[in-house]
Amino acid sequence: MRVWTHILVLTLPVTLAAASKTSPSAKNVTFAKDVAPILQKNCQGCHRPGQIGPMPLLTYSDARPWAKAIKEAVVLKRMPPWFADPAHGKWSNDVSLAQKDVDTLAAWADSGAKEGNPKDLPKPVAFAEGWLLGKPDVELGLTKGFEVPASGTIDYQYIKVPTGFTEDKWVQALEFRPGDPKVVHHLVLFLREPGSPFMARLEPGVPMPAPNSAPRRQVADDGVGRIESTNGPEILGTYTPGGSWQRFEPGQAKLVKAGSDLVFQMHYTATGKVTLDRSRVGLTFAKESPKERIKTVFISNRKLLIPAGAANHRVDARVTLPMDATVTGLFPHMHVRGKAFEYNVTYPDGRTETLLKVPNYEFNWQLSYYPAQPIRLPKGTQIECTAWYDNSPNKKGNPDATVDVRWGDQSWEEMLAGFLDVAMPVAPGATVSTGGGK
Ligand code: HEC
Asked: Is the CB of 53 under 6 A from ligand 1?
């Protein structure tokens, strides 16, 4: 019974959308009947008062003036923010719009953006407040708060928060609660083990804008690229609007060693008003000893050199896996000159595959891509990350098109970092069941 209802619901809009290009039914597309349900499902999470979207898209009068901009944003796939080429890979956190919905929004804008009959409007969405994953075991965050200025570009801020953990903990799920969702564009949460030189000068709770490079351990180095693992600063999780939580599969968890600090890397957007942000993270510990530890490593090419003015400069990072790896997440990272990014693999048997292709990289959206099925890469697989950079004056946000650009942590320097979340077996007996252990 249920199955049939589902199919029926699915087929109906497809027919409508197909018809909309050719027949007069495009003229019948209305806000109330066709557009509002799409905005509710895909846009209002961010486009409502108090959230990051620059304008609300709740009502007809909210949306009407934006009809053309909405069409452009969805046709060019800038909105909702999701930049993976659908030809490669399936992702559990894919928020991209179905083509039929793109067509409906475009048809609405093209046919006079009509309101239709208010009786057709769907019920307004009641957005969940509070923790989406339920109450976490521990909450940690910016208790003193960070004062976000009213205007200007705000440098990334690094804020250290001691965990106070007296034993090792296995984190099974984490959820971020931005203090003020209007100003938090993204957040990367680093783990700093006790004694690590990473951010060693940071005082708890005192924001610092400029990072300092930390020593990394190399897992593999092939000359054209290397896999790096960090001694201290591992990434525990990332927050983007619309992507506020992460739960690892049963039996998998991230390790937080006793005495570790969290370091919040905050990317704020000014909104015209000074606000005090108190973002925090909720951690839920594994109930049983995990079988696999999720560790974040990254592939890099630190020899990159992007010539002044180059509009489409390609850099590769190529490494051969020294061990089997089960990949549970990908996170391509470049800075403001980043243009496009790909992960390609060549298996030991010679087969090749594109794992992820991001044809239009957006520095402002630091997105993670979680594969719907873990990607198993046997030892000997060659992983190639390829990045393209635009150092021309046409590149939006390019701080200086007249200089050659090299590797560096600062956003005016560049990076080629292809992060991989890798599941690694935990040695039996290495853990205890309460989420503690060694
Ligand atoms: C994850 C949060 C998020 C979601 C979901 C989202 N938006 Fe946005 N939208 C933003 C932010 C933030 C901006 C400001 C530009 C930027 O940061 O990229 C924006 C900008 C826009 C703009 C451009 C406004 C301008 O100034 O020109 C349009 C149009 C838009 N969004 C429409 C949509 C539509 C339509 C959807 C759903 C199909 C959608 N957005 C979904 C966050 C979101």
From this structure: yes
Relative to the CA of 241, which ligand 1 atom is closest?
1
Which sign, positive or negative, has the C-alpha torsion 324, 330, 331, 337? positive
pLDDT in tens, 171-206: 999 999 999 998 998 898 999 988 888 888 888 988
Residues 337 and 413 in one domain: yes
Q: Is the peptide bond before 80 cis (omega within 30 degrees of 0)?
A: yes
- Indicate whether 133 belongs to any domain: no
Number of domains into which the chain is organized: 2
Mean pLDDT of all residues in the chain?
Answer: 87
Counting Cα atoms < 13 Å in the Cβ hemisphere of 391 gives: 24
For Cα atoms 99, 102, 104, give the angle at the middle one, nearest 5 degrees: 110
CATH number at residue 308: 2.60.120.230
What whole-number percentage of the chain has pLDDT above 70?
A: 88
Question: Does 277 lie in the same domain as 353?
Answer: yes
Largest Cα–Cα distance of the chain, in whole Å? 69
Residue 336, domain extent: 138-425
Mutate to test the pocket of ligand 1, among 34, 39, 47 (most ligand atoms within 8 A of CB): 47
> Is 229 contained in some domain?
yes
> Ligand 1 pocket: which of 41, 46, 94 to mutate (most atoms <8 Å of CB)?
46
pTM: 0.85
Distance of CA 383 to CAs 56, 84, 354, 357, Å?
A: 42, 18, 10, 13
List residues bridging with 226 in a β-sheet. 221, 300
Rounded to 5°, the CA angle 251-253-254 comes to 165
- Tell me, yes or no, whether 244 and 372 share the same domain: yes
User: Could you give the 3-state DSSP secondary structure of residue 106?
Assistant: helix
